[in-house]
Amino acid sequence: MSVESLPREPEGAVRSRTHRWEDPRIAASAARVEDGLTFLRRLAAGELPPPPIVETLGLTLVSVEAGRVEFALEPAEYHYNPIGSVHGGVYATLLDSATGCAVQSTLPAGVHYTSLDLTVKFLRPITVSTGPVRCVGEVLQAGNRTALAEARILDSADRLVAHATSSCMIFRPGS
Known about the structure:
Blueprint: H1 24-33, H2 36-44, H3 52-57, E1 59-65, E2 68-73, H4 88-104, E3 112-122, E4 133-142, E5 146-154, E6 160-171
Antiparallel strand pairs: 1-2, 2-4, 3-6, 4-5, 5-6
Protein name: PaaI family thioesterase
GO molecular function: hydrolase activity
Domain Thioesterase: 84-161
């Protein structure tokens, strides 16, 4: 896509964006005592405030099942890199969120995780004209200490836009 084909405001127009978020300690406190599936379902239902990164990027947690989550993103100019497409860091954040939350959805109360790695394959550019994309994360394998998950970003025609795998470390009580 050429820069000339990007949606345009009047030349030289300055854009601004304001966003708000609630105290992240509210959700973090719930995450410490609830099982992952319950916690994520409460986030998706709006019963808990979303993490600030969700507000910053405009992500939406659409659905949660044990071992599977789905996020949505409406691409916007503020996601763009210097060449007029969504920055790879936005893809990576979306993919990391989906893989991590898929793992979290399988964890009992008191058990936590962190990402150990994230391997991303970028297959297609995303722009405003792409329209909404969705990101589906699924657990491939879960062990006692680590879990492996994958995520796929799909456009509205269900074409694969990006793919990632992630290993997560599991923290059990006393570990």
